[in-house]
Amino acid sequence: MFNDIGPLELVTLIVLAVLVFGPDKLPKVIQDVTRTIRKIREFSESAKNDIRQELGPEFKDFEFEDLNPKTFIRKQLDNEDLGLKEIRNGFDLKKEMAEVTDAVHSRDADPSSASSTGSAGSSGGRIDMTKKPEPSAPDDRPPFDADAT
């Protein structure tokens, strides 16, 4: 529940609680808070059990954590019946992005080489990554658009 509270923050909360409630009332306040948290947990568990009973026996393995989209997607990706692991493993995103980037840069860098892809001097739409890009002129800034800001 409090996984993201560090030790310094915890000490600060304790000192603040002692200052606000005083050392006399602090044990009573702690008891009241723990009793309230316990009642909320019991209410939550009874509500979960009521929902499971209403859903019927086909949802006996239903977990409310599955309603979290991240958990649902993670479970579905691990499901062997769908065959998503093969698709995910067969798809190399970095390679695809590199190919798209190469294609875009080769088209923008030299329009004459894009039209002569079949010539002997062309490398099949690939760019030589060892060459440094030519510096652009300082006046090649995009126009200022007042509506976009």
TrEMBL record:
Pfam families: TatA_B_E. Keywords: Cell membrane, Membrane, Protein transport, Translocation, Transmembrane, Transmembrane helix, Transport. It is a single-pass membrane protein. The Tat system comprises two distinct complexes: a TatABC complex, containing multiple copies of TatA, TatB and TatC subunits, and a separate TatA complex, containing only TatA subunits. Substrates initially bind to the TatABC complex, which probably triggers association of the separate TatA complex to form the active translocon. Part of the twin-arginine translocation (Tat) system that transports large folded proteins containing a characteristic twin-arginine motif in their signal peptide across membranes. Together with TatC, TatB is part of a receptor directly interacting with Tat signal peptides. TatB may form an oligomeric binding site that transiently accommodates folded Tat precursor proteins before their translocation. Belongs to the TatB family. This is Sec-independent protein translocase protein TatB. It comes from Streptomyces indiaensis.
